[in-house]
Amino acid sequence: MMGALQGATKWGIISALGAVGCYFASPLFRGLTIQFRVYLWMCPTTIGSMMEADRCTYTPTSTHLSTHC
C-alpha cells in the first residue's frame, strides 16, 4: 500500500508539472478538453502507482515479499 501511494504521489507530481509545461508551450495541448487533460494526467499517475507497488513487494531474485520500501 505504501509503495502505491509513493508512486502515485511521485508520478502525479511529475505528470502535473509536464501538463503545466505543455499548457504554456503547446497550442495543441491548450485546445484539448479538460476531461482529456485529466486523463493524460491520470495515466502516468496510475501506472507509476502500480510500478512502485510492484517494486516494493516483489524482488526478482526471490519469491517472498520484500520490506525495502
What does this structure look like?
With 69 residues, this protein is mainly alpha-helical. 75% of the residues lie in helices and 0% in strands. The protein has three helices and no strands. Helix 1 runs antiparallel to helix 3 (34-57). The longest helix has 24 residues, at 2-25. The protein is elongated. The mean pLDDT is 84.
Percent helix range: over 70%
Distance between the termini: 10 Å
Unreliable spans are none
What structural class do you assign from the helix and strand content?
mainly alpha
Number of helices: 3
Largest sheet: none
Sheet-strand content, in percent, reads under 5%
Oligomer class: single chain
Quick take:
This protein is an all-alpha fold and 69 residues long. Helices cover 75% and strands 0% of the residues.
Could you give the topology of this structure?
Blueprint lengths: L1 H24 L1 H4 L3 H24 L12
Q: What structural keywords apply?
A:
mainly alpha, 69 residues, 3 helices
